[in-house]
Write a structure and sequence with these properties.
alpha+beta, 19 strands, about 50% helix, five-stranded mixed β-sheet
Length: about 675
């Protein structure tokens, strides 16, 4: 019998770079590479299967310095591109646009014993199963690292000649990913466990410079909030000192842009002097939130200034025409990291003239520089603010330097809007607006929220994760719903408008339907009807972003305290139970979840009954907003309106026509309080 002719492969071509069809600024940065890049899609996986080639997955983001370095060294090289095009199906992923893909393969890399980071470089089977990877690689051997060209040749040979090794690696990594997704029953997260974790975290604080551990140092706002809550709860002075020392150094260090406002992503040194210069929306949102929470007790002028300057920066430089916020500013300009932000002494002298010496002394502008021959403005040598007159003069100096800096080539802006990052910034601005009485900030936060609700939402009410070039795309992940629901609650509190609470309630039910792990509790990162990846992750550990499960726990606790609805408490309890074992094993890294546990267990409920704009109501609210009360819920009830029947203050009223406050814990509420001074005593 004659043999059938060999089957021809489908004519699915990989003949060009296809990133010009995308909207992500990061992907568009690579559209002119000689590499035949494609975005992640079912079609791309089908191409890999049809051609029998492994996938080379490269994940990064627009503001990533080392992503730019690897692009210039390798992806713009015709020789390296030829190796990639011949042997691999090459996939570029914007880790911010597709956090589901990036997180999955970051986990896979860490299971191989390597540290994660960006650019992420992973090699996958055509089914998307990872078998080897790393992060940045130089084009040729350097820094004790293998060259990327050599890696490409070795992986290609491994794929062709030794498939058994690939199969073993796939199996080992796959088993590890499955274990990471498992949650096991454990004893509940007890108050004693929370205090043990606070003590442990406190032991890692750098007492001289603040921050956790040594260089590099990240702000870690969630961990600092956790310690602040522990200080408020236990009165242990070292917890307060840890938070204040860290915030003082971050606010006066080079990690802060003293001319324009805004914080860089992290410090490369232990003193917070030398930043990795990119500015991320999410870092600034979390630091505004934390600084506001701490300022409510400390009333530190430095913190108030940094809050105002950072929000002003976000509104000036990060707000898009649509009212939402862009993602990040690049670290590099003119292919040089930090060039936009650093100064020589001669430049400052020329601009400030007679004022130069005074400014240079305060901001550490040296003849020889404090970093690579130039100076990063900072106030670490003397962090105390000067007299009002001296600070006013320095403000004029900064304005002159900022105007001169505007003539420089600016770092690129990644102008896609992400639902979760916007949720963080909206909530932070809404909170600060109430504390500092800034109506304009509240209007900006509301406008951003309204755009997302209208333009980043499907006809069926489902959120989309990313917006750019006039298009919303990619099904939302858990963090989108969690962070935007938190923003909705903040706007409801600030405005009293029921639509925010209603929208947040709708999102909560979508999460319950499509993200809940009905078997083991907690929430998956992706929806049950999202594009199928090799695993569905469940994440409770904080990264630079607060975990979605942690934020969900806080939201559910708030909703339980606002409404008395036991469904919310049951969902929060189920989520905490799902991750109790992981918390006991890992201890650190679960601050957002633990903050949610505290809110659920000990949440303070404040009810103010009175007309929102009446002077007596406003006086009581000023007191509430002037005290740091982490995790508290605030309900402002108009005269004649009623709280839900299950709320402990249901049925409470104004007193003799005057606004009244009730302070509740659990099922017990205080007597009515009508005087602002008495309310302050009750809250402190």
């Amino acid at each position: 019998m004659a043999k059938p002719p060999p089957m021809e492969r489908p004519q699915v071509t990989q003949d060009r770079n296809r990133l010009g069809e995308e909207t992500s600024p990061y992907l568009l940065q690579h559209k002119d590479n000689p590499v035949h890049w494609r975005a992640w899609s079912a079609e791309t996986l089908a191409l890999a299967k049809a051609q029998g080639k492994p996938i080379l997955l490269s994940s990064g983001y627009a503001a990533c310095h080392w992503c730019h370095v690897m692009a210039a060294e390798s992806f713009e090289s015709d020789a390296i591109a030829a190796l990639m095009n011949e042997n691999f199906v090459n996939v570029k992923v914007d880790r911010e646009e597709r956090p589901d893909i990036d997180h999955l393969y970051q986990q896979a890399l860490q299971l191989t014993g390597r540290r994660g980071g960006w650019p992420l470089t992973m090699f996958l089977t055509p089914d998307g199963e990872p078998f080897w990877g790393g992060t940045y690689f130089p084009p040729e051997p350097r820094y004790g690292m293998p060259g990327f060209a050599d890696i490409l040749k070795a992986i290609s040979e491994l794929w062709r000649e030794n498939p058994a090794v690939v199969t073993r690696n796939v199996a080992a990594i796959g088993e590890g990913l499955s274990r990471l997704a498992e949650t096991a029953p454990a004893d509940p997260i007890s108050p004693d466990l929370v205090e043990t974790i606070a003590e442990k975290l406190d032991g890692y604080i750098d007492r001289a410079n603040g921050g956790v551990g040594g260089a590099p140092k990240f702000p870690q706002a969630a961990s600092l909030e956790f310690l602040w809550r522990a200080w408020k709860r236990m009165g242990r002075a070292s917890y307060r000192e840890a938070v204040l020392t860290t915030l003082d150094h971050i606010c006066q260090g080079g990690i802060y842009d003293h001319l324009a406002g805004g914080f860089a992503r992290y410090s490369t040194d232990e003193r917070w002097l030398v930043p990795h210069f990119e500015k991320m929306l999410y870092d600034n949102a979390q630091l505004v939130d934390l600084l506001t929470l701490v300022w409510q007790d400390e009333k530190t002028p430095l913190y108030a200034a940094r809050i105002e300057e950072t929000i002003d920066w976000a509104l000036r430089e990060m707000r898009l025409a649509e009212g939402v916020f862009a993602s990040s500013l690049d670290a590099d300009s003119e292919h040089e990291e930090g060039k936009f932000y650093v100064w020589t002494a001669a430049e400052v002298d020329a601009i400030l003239g007679a004022r130069a010496a005074a400014f240079r002394a305060v901001y550490d502008i040296e003849e020889d520089g404090n970093w690579e021959g130039k100076s990063i403005p900072n106030r670490l040598r003397s962090m105390e603010l000067l007299s009002a007159e001296e600070e006013a003069a320095l403000a004029l100096d900064r304005a002159k330097l900022l105007a001169a800096r505007a003539a420089r080539v600016r770092p690129g802006r990644d102008d896609k809007a992400l639902a979760d990052w916007n949720g963080l910034m909206i909530a932070a601005i809404a909170s600060a607006a109430q504390v500092f009485g800034r109506r304009d900030w509240l209007e900006a936060a509301t406008a951003a929220f309204d755009f997302i609700a209208a333009k980043m939402t499907t006809a069926g009410g489902r959120l989309l994760h990313s917006y750019g070039a006039g298009r919303a795309k990619h099904m939302a992940v858990l963090d989108d719903y969690a962070d935007l629901t938190r923003a909705a609650l903040a706007l409801h509190e600030a405005t009293g408008e029921a639509r925010f609470l209603e929208r947040g309630g709708d999102w909560i039910e979508i999460v319950e339907t499509h993200y809940r792990d009905a078997n083991a509790g907690g929430y998956f990162f992706t929806a049950d009807d999202a594009e199928a990846l090799i695993r569905r992750s469940k994440i409770a550990e904080d990264a630079p972003l607060p975990s979605g499960n942690g934020t969900m726990t806080q939201i559910l606790a708030q909703l339980y305290h606002l409404t008395g609805d036991e469904r919310y408490r049951a969902r929060a309890d189920s989520t905490l139970a799902a991750f109790a074992s992981a918390v006991r094993r890992g201890m650190l890294g679960y601050s957002t979840l633990l903050n949610g546990a505290e809110t659920l267990r000990d949440g303070l409920q404040i009810v103010v009954i009175g007309a929102r704009d009446a002077p007596d109501t406003a006086a009581l609210l000023r007191v509430v907003h002037g005290v740091s009360l982490p995790g508290r819920t605030l309900a402002i009830v108009a005269p004649g309106a009623e709280l839900p029947p299950a709320h402990p203050a249901a049925g409470k009223t104004m007193i003799n026509g005057s606004a009244a406050a009730y302070v509740c814990r659990g099922a017990t509420c205080s007597l009515p309080i009508v005087e602002a001074t008495e309310l302050e005593k009750a809250l402190r």
